[in-house]
Write a structure and sequence with these properties.
The structure is a single chain. The chain is mainly α. It has one domain. It is 72% helix and 0% strand. It is built from eight helices and no strands. The chain is globular and about 45 Å long. The protein starts with a helix and ends with a helix.
């Protein structure tokens, strides 16, 4: 696996950890059942399987998930995330962007990843802004554009996002 896969896997892990932080906050509120992704134990199980699949992919000869390998329960949870994302939840949008970017359990699709990252970024999600900058930088699903990449990295860096800060240092 190359640097791009490693970066994508790290991005997915960061999205998962962000989701777990949100989940913990929901549990503390005592109102997790009424919020997007409120089925905490199912999400925890799904995220654990997602992390395991990422580890399995690193050891796969071609690095690609088998088509149609998504368990029914994962499909239901994906549908919950899609519903939350369509209602404007930036964390759900970012998580969907990661899933499409990495191509774990669902076919890899940079166009859909860009769509969900952009939606989350427009709502101020710093990690999504950083990933959007990366996609412009690499020309994934959009023409390569360092000016737009820099614009998104600056927005993310202004919120303290570390990867965006690093990219701005590299591309002064």
């Amino acid at each position: 696996m190359g640097l791009l896969f490693t970066t994508a896997a790290a991005a997915g892990a960061l999205g998962i950890f962000s989701w777990l932080k949100k989940r913990d906050a929901l549990q503390k509120d005592g109102d997790s059942a009424n919020k997007p992704g409120g089925n905490v134990s199912s999400l925890d199980e799904f995220l654990a399987r997602l992390l395991k699949k990422g580890a399995d992919l690193r050891n796969a000869p071609d690095g690609n998930a088998a088509e149609g390998s998504m368990p029914e329960e994962d499909k239901q949870i994906l549908a919950m995330w899609e519903e939350a994302a369509q209602k404007g939840d930036p964390q759900a949008q970012f998580n969907l962007g990661n899933m499409y970017y990495i191509g774990d359990s669902i076919p890899q699709d940079y166009t859909k990843a860009f769509f969900w990252y952009e939606n989350a970024a427009m709502r101020g999600h710093a990690e999504a802004q950083s990933h959007l900058g990366n996609m412009y930088h690499l020309g994934q699903s959009v023409p390569r554009d360092l000016a737009k990449a820099r614009e998104w990295w600056e927005k993310a860096a202004a919120q303290g996002e570390g990867q965006a800060r690093s990219m701005l240092i590299l591309y002064r």
